[in-house]
């Protein structure tokens, strides 16, 4: 190679110098300019990985050609050719080759890439940690003498976390951030190790503007979605209104609350701003699946396939689409394809477990959920899915354990509390179940069944007054949500539950001589197929009692009008009011439950 070739790489850094060069230099530049830009800062590169690799190999081969006298290479400059070649191998995932060509380099950048390549070249098996121990020993030698830069400290922290040396890992990540506060990967790794809000506030991380993003992200990880949403809104109002990352995190916070409508609106706005974005689209597809928006989900699936059908997010979106259509086997195939692309993708493992549950393959579902927990122990959906699986297998103690783990991650999610209460009920631990159902009602029952379960439990405990009060409140709330309309639109509660509630109240009032209320409840019973005959029987009994002068003395036309009083007026009487004939009526007020235990 002529001597000018090396000079081409070192001197010809401006594209404007391309014209007017001698033919040999022009030819060298054509080969080497992409290789130079690949090495310069990391970093630009043509994006043509095979071409970059060949260019780097050619550049490495002319290493012995002397450079012009005007160039005095520093430490990193002397390793530039090795870095260029190793980076080209790193980009095509030939990690062993990348590590080999950097083993004798001395610069901090080359040392990091060498050790990181060795880490990535290790076996993808959590049970085999021998190679991690070797890497840890080598990093520890430099760590003791303070020779690790921020990037190498980040790698050291990852190794410590993989070896489950979590306290040491936290300290190392904090040191890495003190040296490189813009290293977002270290912030993310540190977020995985934060266990509670107190620990988050006590971390000695640098006071950098990135810290606000870290705290908001950690709030999301810990399911503190209200605090996370407040922080992201504040960031949005202080200069990051156009940040698609902030917009996506706001949508995720709404999803975690859960505020499905605002979450869908946020994702829709995000798609308008960044129509070719695939990040977080799997979460958006989960929302569309829950809301059963089939047309929107089909459009999203087609759009993702047009952008990149080999991304894990695309596979999850398409899988959700087929799952909504009831094609669970095909949905499972797409989730498996996502896991072949990325075996550590949390959402795919959880969704695959859901599909196995739909296919009644409980053993495969358990394995999928366990893999999800192995990826991220904060995934409450996986813990909840395991609880459901063991509930199907009629193993209540296992079921209770997993529901407790899910509820600990989502303490204000009524679904978790309800599942925990049902597990306690199956184990005949009725007082604990009572507290769970009451808590689910207090924090906002998403499924509308907490009061009904509470009433049934009071029935088992022979507490008639509390059972009737719970049933009355259940009817009132059902009416408020448009459930008890005669048109037959009963929503998630189900008309059989309302029929049972009215039947219990009719019998309860009949036993206590409240014939007016008993008649109204019995009349409501006749609107349901399940309790029609029993309602008619109660009405006949009331007519018989009135005929013999037993019970309340009320004109017939007050109880036989065509439009009966609303359930609120009937069954939610207060203890301090009413006519004289209401003196002996129960109050229909549920007594608060003391939640002095940890579910």
From TrEMBL:
SUPFAM superfamilies reported for this sequence: TPR-like
Pfam families named among the record's database cross-references: ANAPC8 (PF04049), TPR_8 (PF13181)
TPR repeat copies, ranges: 312-345, 346-379
GO terms, biological process: anaphase-promoting complex-dependent catabolic process; cell division; positive regulation of mitotic metaphase/anaphase transition; protein ubiquitination
Key word Repeat present: yes
InterPro entries from the UniProt entry: APC8 (IPR007192), TPR-like_helical_dom_sf (IPR011990), TPR_rpt (IPR019734)
Gene3D superfamilies documented for this protein: Tetratricopeptide repeat domain
CC per GO annotation: anaphase-promoting complex
Alphabetic keyword roster: Cell cycle, Cell division, Mitosis, Repeat, TPR repeat, Ubl conjugation pathway
Domain of life, source organism: Eukaryota
Stretches the record annotates as Disordered: 548-599
Keyword Magnesium carried by entry: no
TM region(s), chain numbering: none
Domain annotation Cdc23: ranges: 66-251
PANTHER family: CELL DIVISION CYCLE 16,23,27 (PTHR12558), CELL DIVISION CYCLE PROTEIN 23 HOMOLOG (PTHR12558:SF10)
Name assigned to this protein: Cdc23 domain-containing protein
